[in-house]
Amino acid sequence: QVQLVESGGGLVEPGGSLRLSCAASGFTFNNHGMTWARQAPGKGFEWVSTIDKSGTGTNYIAPVKGRFTISRDNTKNILYLQMNSLKPEDTAVYYCAKGEFTYYPRGQGTQVTVSS
Q1: CB atoms < 10 A from the CB of 76, how many?
Q2: What is the pLDDT of residue 95?
Q3: Residue 97 needs a FRET pair 20 to 30 A away by CA distance; which of 15, 27, 55, 74 works?
Q4: How does the average pLDDT of the chain come out, rounded?
C-alpha cells in the first residue's frame, strides 16, 4: 500500500525558506519518478516539480524555477523540496505524489503559508 507523508510546512515571511520532506513507503521508491504538487486556496492542483527515479532529471514550473530545488534520497526513501525566496503566491497545501506529472496517489499534504 502506497504511503506518502509530507512534512516541513509552516508560516514563513516573504523571502524566507522552507524544506519540505516526503517519506515514502509501500512501493519500490527508486523505481519511480516523483512529483511535488500544490493546491492554493480556491484553485485546482498544480504540479510544481518532478524528478526522475535516479534523481538526475528534474522539471519545474516557470514561477518556481531558480527558487525551488527538488531532490531525493533513494537510500532513505525520502523526497525533498527546498523552497527559497518564498512569495505570498506560493501559499498552498503541498503534496508529494508517486509518479511524474501526476497528483495521485499523493499524501495528506503540508500547509505552506507565506505572509508578513
Answers
A1: 11
A2: 98
A3: 15
A4: 97
Q: What is the 3-state secondary structure (H, E, C) of the chain?
A: CCEEEEECCEEECCCCCEEEEEEEECCCHHHCCEEEEEECCCCCEEEEEEECCCCCCEEECHHHCCCEEEEEECCCCEEEEEECCCCHHHCEEEEEEECCCCCCCECCCEEEEECC
68 C-beta neighbours (distance < 10 Å), count: 21
CA 78 to chain centre: 11
Closest CA to 45 of 116, 107, 114: 107
Residue 2 CB partners (closer than 8 Å, separation 6+):
24, 25, 26, 27, 98, 105
Q: What pLDDT score was predicted for residue 51?
A: 98
On the CB side of 114, how many CA atoms lie within 13 Å of its CA? 18
CB atoms within 10 A of CB 94: 23
